[in-house]
Write a structure and sequence with these properties.
Blueprint lengths: L1 E6 L2 E5 L4 E4 L12 E4 L9 H10 L4 E5 H7 L7 E5 L4 E4 L2 E7 L8 E6 L4 E4 L7 H10 L6 E5 L9 H11 L3 E5 L26 E2 L1
Parallel strand pairs: 3-4, 4-5, 5-6, 10-11, 11-12
Antiparallel strand pairs: 1-2, 1-13, 2-3, 7-8, 8-9, 9-10
Length: 209
């Protein structure tokens, strides 16, 4: 799977048959998008204008979103496929299965997502604090630990700081962990102490994961 960190919370996953945008903050010239995942109604995750720009080019894309985000987008449901997901909901798109899992943050309906391409698992936590119920939710689906965990490190607005995110990644049994939400916000990947499996993505540079 090719993964591109676009900015802050925004990610693009590109498999052989499917392209998935997570929390898009701008258009990024996105064409042929099959699904958009939105973890929360927080301004860091739900950018209405960016989403509309993506949907104008990809009107058949499924928008899989936290229920709070669905409430903010419900006026679009008649024109686009806006799908509200709660923790434990499942959505299949071509050869990809997406699982919604709990998140613990200001938005009580926020979710994280596990993207499973049949070979590897990619966990995008969205905003969450270090929380054992969240850990249990992920490990119930991926007993041996996720292959890649994408975690916030800015410590703001109901999201983990770098130390808690690293400890969380160890508890997840993550083979690799990728720090996010820095640059324009507090936090540095240097403070993310996940030794052997840490991957620092460069903005807008695709990586094979």
């Amino acid at each position: 799977m090719k993964v591109t960190w676009l900015s802050l919370a925004s990610l693009l996953f590109e498999g052989e048959r499917v392209r998935i945008l997570v929390d898009p903050s701008e258009d990024f010239g996105a064409d042929r998008i099959d699904a958009v995942l939105i973890t929360s109604d927080s301004p860091l995750h739900l950018f209405r204008e960016a989403l509309l720009s993506v949907l104008e080019k990809n009107p058949d894309a499924a928008v899989l979103c936290a229920r709070s985000a669905y409430a903010a987008l419900s006026d679009l449901a008649g024109k686009y496929n806006i799908v509200p997901l709660a923790a434990h909901s499942v959505w299949s798109e071509k050869n990809i299965t997406t699982y919604a899992v709990r998140a613990e943050t200001v938005d009580k309906e926020a979710v994280g997502f596990i993207i499973d391409d049949g070979n590897k698992t990619y966990y995008v936590s969205g905003d969450t604090l270090y929380n054992y119920e969240v850990l249990d939710d992920v490990l119930e689906l991926v007993e041996d630990g996720v292959d890649y965990a994408f975690l916030p490190i800015n410590g703001r607005g109901g999201a983990m700081n770098a130390k808690d995110a690293a400890d969380f990644a160890y508890e997840l049994g993550a083979a690799h962990a990728i720090p996010l939400y820095y640059g324009e916000r507090p936090g540095s990947p240097d403070d993310f102490d996940f030794e052997e499996g840490k991957i620092v993505l460069l903005p807008k540079k695709a990586a094979d994961l």
